[in-house]
Design goal:
By secondary structure, this protein is of the alpha+beta class. The protein folds into 4 domains: about 230 residues, Rossmann fold (3-Layer(aba) Sandwich); about 90 residues, Beta Barrel (Elongation Factor Tu (Ef-tu), domain 3), CATH 2.40.30; about 70 residues, 2-Layer Sandwich (Alpha-Beta Plaits), CATH 3.30.70; about 240 residues, Ribosomal Protein S5, domain 2 (2-Layer Sandwich), CATH 3.30.230. The strands form 8 sheets. A 7-stranded mixed sheet has the order 2-3-1-4-5-7-6, with helices on both faces. Helix 12 crosses helix 13. The longest helix is centred in the C-terminal third of the chain and has 16 residues.
Amino acid sequence: MNKVIGILAHVDSGKTTLCEQILYHTKSIRKRGRVDHKDSYFDSYDIERQRGITIFSKEGKFSYNNSNYYLIDTPGHVDFSTEMERSLKMLDYAILIISGVEKVQSHSETIFNLLRENNIPTFIFINKMDREITNKQDIIEDLQENLSKNIFDFTNELKDEMSNELIEFISEKDEELLELFFEEKYNYDLWIKYLIKLIKELKVFPCVFGSALLDENIDILLEILDKLTITNYKKEDNFVGKVYKIKYEENNQKLTLIKLLQGQLKVKDEVSYKYNNEVVRDKINEIRVYNGEKFTKKDIADAGEIVAVKGLGKINVGQQLVSYNNEDDFKIVNDNNFHIIPTLSSKVIFAENLNIKDIYNYFKILENEEPSLNILYNEELKEIQISVMGKMQLEILKKIVYDRFSVEVDFGPCEILYKESIKSTAIGIGHFEPLKHYAEVVLKLEPSKRNSGIYFESKAHVDDITIGHQNLVRTHIFEKPHKGILGGYEITDIKVTLLTGRAHNKHTEGGDFRQATLRALRQGLETVENILLEPYYKFKIEIENEYIGRLISDIQKMSGTFHIHEGKNNKSIVNGRGPVSRLMDYPLELISYTKGRGRISFIYDGYDECHNTEEVLASRNYDKDNDKEYTSNSIFCSKGKGYIVKGEDVINYMHCEIN
């Protein structure tokens, strides 16, 4: 039985140490390393050992009883949590580590909520129980209050039979079990079967107390994990896989890490995926199974395994791979719907004697590995912008660029990533007809649900514009982020409908529809009211009641909303929502005035209307009419010469008819 297990934790909770112990106990490694000794098995990069934190997710493999386990060690620092969240899409089960000293920390709560959101059954390991300051009952109460009431201590359970407390606890989660409980009918194997089901349904979260550093109760955790987990992968079906990660070797050869969801994958097999809306067929040249930085090659991989393959040239993180040959049967699933999204941007700074195109290409390689970087190149300003989670990530990126490409770069100040949208429906018209070129596109732009992104559909008739040209329009809508007209920020939350279009049998080329599409999009934006959007956080603050007045005043000043719940021990729980720009530095202030006793956690809560639009746009100073990359003007042709028609006048010159 193949099982994929993720190890997750708030930074410094002992995650990498637990991974070392699991691999050592299962004889997957011969020697246990330590983070503080800079010799841990998974944190193999110099930069990770120097910092003492996990930056890149790693894969390991071990066997226990009759199952093969694929272990994913994920980053714990908030700045690298986008990679952590991508790992969740691969997991069958998770082990969440909680420090018995600090108890539930802000990022621990975020991770647990993400696990539930992704329906991942979760086991909890309470680490650092060798410390004298830990109190088991206090920890259980903290877990049940901040994570789930359905957490139960399994440390001394399941050896031969269940305790009465556990039987009573799980019987409350299922009607059939409750009936058996009242009838005093207890069969160990039957109740274990029900327990496995309840864990799968996220109705029970087993926890184990121990110490990874001192090797306490690691064997109990392994036994419970093995006994209470089950998968049912089918290797007889057609191959389907999902891309989990991309990385490059020193020779710049691309490695694609995938999880096999069903079927088998063999060396020399051909597989299909989509690139720019076209189906691509590539041959698998090599299959590897990684254990840390070491790997073994194999000829066949089965469903439920995580492997690295060579041969996939254009595939991206999150895409699905299939063995199908028929495009009509090909259903692509690009699951890139994430909760953790960078809300900051920074400019790349480098020496004038360096070629900006080279720098851009280096960062595009890094973006292929870490899609959330969202690299943007401004041709006019000769600037490269990246999206980031925080300052720590910038420090690490600086070192990575130097180590991998031998180039020194720096970064400008972190700035909030704003976006733009529209308030009402618009019709956008774009015409591109210099001599011997021709394309016209008519789009309808409609505001869509907040945080829905860009959606495209075509209602054009094939008699007016062919399917091939309709697909070209679609491609150009999604080929890159498009600028809004307020501050030149990325547009979002818009439904784009192709109403009609026109081509010329002789003169139309593919690039003509790109020009017409971009002009139509821009022209439509200029005909309606546009709005500025900014990122928001949901927050949860635990604070002593003596500071509640100060907190309420601060939240109001930060343009936030909130509601208060009465907590225990003269404390209150404050839940709310507010702009990232105002909240991002508040944890330090909270810690300061509560003398370290206040606790705050954030989770990204999408974009909403900006609370200080005028202030932001005044500092941005964007001139939409002088943006050479985007224009609402169209080009028409008369008597062999092209001429420009301004966006507001193009409706009087257009060739298509709008019904």
